[in-house]
Amino acid sequence: MQQHDVRVHPSADDLGREDQLAWKIARVATDPVEIEPQVTDMVINRVIDNAAVAAASLGRSPVVAARGQALAHAASANGAGATVFGEPMSTRTSPEWAAWVNGVAVRELDFHDTFLAADYSHPGDNIPPIIAVAQHLAAARRLSGRDLVRGIATGYEIQVDLVKAICLHKHKIDHVAHLGPSAAAGIGTLLGLDEETIFQAVGQALHTTTATRQSRKGEISTWKAHAPAFAGKMAVEAVDRAMRGQTSPVPVYEGEDGVIAWMLDGPGARYTVPLPGPGEPKRAILDTYTKEHSAEYQAQAWIDLARKLHFEHPALVVEPSRIAEIVLHTSHHTHVVIGSGAGDPQKYDPAASRETLDHSIPYIFTVALQDGGWHHVESYAPERAARPDTVELWQKVTTVEDPEWTRRYHSRDVAEKAFGGAIVITLDDGTEIRDEIAVADAHPLGARPFGREQYVRKFRALAGDVLDSSEIERFLEVAQRLPDLRPAELPELTIIAPHGSLLPAPVGLF
């Protein structure tokens, strides 16, 4: 990897194109390097993973509303249109609207892949906009499954590299600000665009996708699922504008009135951004990890530990009143984002929204401890959250930051990087139960790492109550042939719900 120094420059410096981060991203996107077999296999896994969580969310209100918006827009000119999750394959919409609705479906349950470093990310959010453009232009540009794999690999590479280097959340900027540029770059690779066009698209995508983190704070709303879908939609539109010769703010990162100077670390900031050098494989997707449980990623290991304690210490479940307090010693990020360090009383509110409970480790740990597992619907049900013994125990769970777990969270050594922590359960007689967990069971270094078998099982489990068995098998067969798909087969990368099973969309403006 090449390490690129990125800092603010006054306009008088007249910073050249080749010295700007957006240009360097474009250069990676145009590099014709071949995709390694293990990367291709992981791209397939994540396409399956996205479809799994999208299937489970087809009936949820944000997805229903987004679907209504998308279907109000016909397929645009110069292409055949893109498919919409749940709808028949013949139903098409414009690619930016397909990116929108499919992105919401993928993100709604907070159940697909993740990468955590200097900032947060769900790099699987790159897949919906890239697939949408591939389907729209498959015939016109003779795009194949191989082209799609290359585009997705670029999207993952750019987002992961930005997340490794540039922290957004400490400045209260939402993590999707790294997604707009990565999706634009991925679309550029897919279409074989030149460096100048991708450079302009990356700049426009960044400029239009910077927003505050209030969408993930306090009373968390349905916008949480829409935010990355909006970034994907903006990336598609940015590429369209750039292809038409329109330009973006320059330099978008390094300018004296740019993103770094006024939204991030300020005029004196310096970042070291790693990017593949010429001819170097794009392997960043291999650094990412998916979720076994439908909850914020920093809760994954804690759910696994709670499940373990449920079976090892059944008295905790039978007599929860004996528990005096539960303290989770964890990283700064976990403590202040989903823990008691956030200062959000909503994280302890039995009437809180699903989106809020998804970001409450006190709630998640309590339910997982009592139930010995986690379910993407039942664990968030209002009656489950309001159960008296759960509410009583929930109020006894707090988090504290532990410097060592914070250090491991930020470590660049994959062998010691950790997203869990240590637990101390104190009983009413002073007895303490102690344990710890570093990574989730499904993590590549966890107790039960996910491979193709687990991704397929997750798809079958989540789609089983939503799709016909024949549709489940059809999709799995197509997805696992991804790199060999012909242009006419790319629209088959969708999931089709049984006729009449989708809820009608509420009436809006369109």
Structural description of this entry:
With 510 residues, the protein is an alpha+beta fold. It folds into two domains: 2-287, 2-methylcitrate dehydratase PrpD; 297-437, 2-methylcitrate dehydratase PrpD (60s Ribosomal Protein L30, Chain: A). It is 44% helix and 8% strand. The protein has helices at 21-30, 37-56, 61-71, 95-107, 127-141, 145-165, 179-191, 195-208, 223-243, 259-263, 300-312, 315-318, 332-337, 354-357, 361-371, 382-385, 388-394, 403-410, 452-463, 469-479, and strands spanning 2-7, 82-83, 92-93, 270-275, 323-330, 397-401, 421-427, 432-437. The strands form three sheets. It has a four-stranded mixed sheet. A two-stranded antiparallel sheet has the order 1-4. Strands 2-3 form a two-stranded antiparallel sheet. Strand 7 (421-427) and strand 8 (432-437) form a beta hairpin. Helix 3 packs antiparallel against helix 4 (95-107), helix 4 runs antiparallel to helix 5 and helix 5 (127-141) packs parallel to helix 9.
